[in-house]
Amino acid sequence: MRILKFGGTSVGSEDAIRRVLKLIALKREEGRIQVVVSAFGGVTNTLLQMVEDASAGNQAYREQLKAIEDRHIDIVRKLIGVKQQSTVLTELKVLLNELDDVLHGVSLTHELTDRTRDFVLGFGERLSAYILSKALASSGIEAEYIDARELIKTNDDFGNARVLVPTTYENIRERLKESEFVGIVTGYISSTVTGETTTLGRGGSDYTASLIGAALDAEAIEIWTDVEGIMTADPRKVGRYLPIGRLSYEEAMELSHFGAEVIYPPTIHPAMEQAIPIYIKNTFKPEARGTVITQEVQDDKSSVKGISSIDNITLITLKGSGMVGVSGFAARIFSALADAGVNIIMITQASSEHTVCFAVLPDEAPLAMRALEHHFKRELEEGIIDEIKEEPDCSIVAAVGEGMKRTPGISGRFFRSLGRNGINVRAIAQGSSERNISIVVQEDDLAKTLNTIHDAFFLSEIKSVNLFLIGIGLIGSKLLDLFEKQADLLFEKHNIELKLCGIANSRYYKIREEGMPFTGWPDRLEEEGEPMSLQQFLKEADRLNLPNSLFIDCTASEEVSDFYPEVMKANFSLVTANKKANSGTLKRYQELQELALEHNVMYLYETNVGAGLPVVKTLKEQVLAGDEITKIEGVLSGTLSYIFNTYDGKTPFSQVVRNALEKGYTEPDPREDLNGRDVARKLLILAREAGIEVEMGDLTVQNLVPEPAREADSVEDFFEKLAEFDDEFRQQYDRAASQGHRLCYIARYEQGDATVALEEIDSGHPFSGLSGSDNIIAFHTKHYRDTPLVVKGPGAGAEVTAGGILADILRISNVPSFSNKIV
Ligand code: ADP
Ligand code: ASP
Ligand code: MG
Q1: Full-prediction pTM beyond 0.70?
Q2: What confidence category does residue 346 fall into, taking pLDDT thresholds of 50, 70 and 90?
Q3: Beta partners for 572?
Q4: For residue 791, how many C-alpha atoms fall within 13 Å in the half-sphere facing its CB?
């Protein structure tokens, strides 16, 4: 059983509700669910306004009531089949009349009790849950409206009632434990044992979901809202924020207690008791990872997980030398405030004991002042307490994270950043759990404080890498699979967030700033994409102006590789599996290297040679480390490696090639492998990487396709022609074998000569033990003079190639700022 809760932001409009219905249907297919809904977005606020107006005798509430009525009727008309509409509208009318009667009563008596206020506020959820249950039923899902007042029992603290947990759990179990239907439960509302409507506090629907989850021992509680999880700071208050992947229950509790409205603080407790994970997900972007709140504490580096704030508080300070060393002072303050019903949000005492200060809500400040002045009357008169001071318009900012316990230097960083930005801290408290550092600042400084602390702790930690992928054939698809597989790990353990912001094939492209799922392409591209144009793709990607932007070319297209200069000029780093650019003219090769430097972007192409094997990287590092390359030898084609490792002089050569084709080891036309051109391209790239200025025309390449077979019209025709040369290949094999040699198609660069040819090698040669379709590359250098530096292993295949591309992406991601875009 899973509990899904949809907040007011998720049921604000027809479009949003349609998404919710779709999500419910999807989740229902996966198993049993119960659903909790809030009032339609903004309705609770309107109800509050209406009842306040009515009690003041202001008739404006009537218009608002009409607006609420219209809004709900409109949704019913749009979402519920014509047949069922009239019953639903009748029921709606009954509810709205009841509301009208109460408001009318309030406007006549000019009297508004907490009890009546709660009764009025409860209509929002009663309306929304009822409509949703009918809309679901009308779409064919067995659903039932459930009034939470029958399940959740509370005391009579109207406005913020305390739940009577055992009775509540019993009621929930009785009603929902065995249910096969989808219950659409009203959030936020509850009732006393005598049946009077109470509410669980503003934002209380989250709590409803958690109570139901705990009572039913649900496997998860999902809070669906309008943000992708709990963010490192309130998105409305800071310029930059990041989603938090995981939080412990305690961390979530601290963050929400200090103002992260995305989850209502009491929600955590019931879930925590039963160790039920709470997921925070975005209704409008269900594929986004979201936040999961669980028991386990992540042993990660990010010691501060998030920052939250309470905007408006009043700071009260008691000051006086007479308090020093006198026991029981703090206790007296607390009890005086408790007696007055004042809630203390935060408290600090200077170690000199000269001052005690604490934060309260502005509403409660006058009450607190009065209580303290009364209680400490004598001390004030006698000068034991100098003054009790009230400072309005303050804010609390709290940095929260389990890891702060173990990490020294957190508060240093915290306060250094504030000092550097000239922010004056009025009071400081560090929770004894060490999970929280809170400070009080002037409300005017709040935004600056939040942004400053946020930047100090997060910007250097989590890095979003914004990917723009071209080519979703064999390799591109494997790469997407790999992203899907590795993304969570990279995010959680290495603070790297892979974000796919653009994707394209030769026909369509799609760009999305917030990122998109890694799965489901290319069908989705055909449905959702725009007709492909490289210019347009780049232009739109560029317009997003995202930091750490990276182009990935998984095509073999020359048109794409010709476009690289534009990509780099637009400050995108580039990872490519496409050999065309580096094996084109020397001028182009050099131009790309220079552009990368000039635009401060990275250009990596490890998979150009040996697929995922670290060939280019090894060579580059040798050169950078001052080594001199004297000779490069390699078997650079998996196909040709396989063919000559398998060919034993008995099976005809043409048959060996045919077998390779059938196994999928060759190109559809094996001549493309046998002609050696691909191997030549790789050798050319290696030579250039070694610092040698060569053009393709400088290479001597032995084409293994016999002359007559080159012009053959079809592959079949080619095989027939090739068979005529079977004897010739056998003779060559026998000649080698008679001397204990074997055949090997080797690419070689040595002393200015670059050749690719079928050679005989003796048993002492480093390549003689080669098997399967492995590649092998031997670098003979000044440092590796006696035995060469050898890289060996599978050098072909979509999977290893995708692995090599991801490795390049990660190398780039580890560079502090690899693209100088302005955020
Ligand atoms: P719902 O109607 O779904 O219950 P709420 O408005 O109660 O939604 O909560 C979601 C809002 O909480 C977000 O739109 C966001 O503005 C606000 N919020 C405050 N702090 C945070 C935070 N740290 N992370 C995410 N959202 C936050
Ligand atoms: N509708 C209620 C409110 O606005 C409860 C909720 O949204 O969770 O506070
Ligand atoms: Mg909420």
Answers
A1: no
A2: confident
A3: none
A4: 19
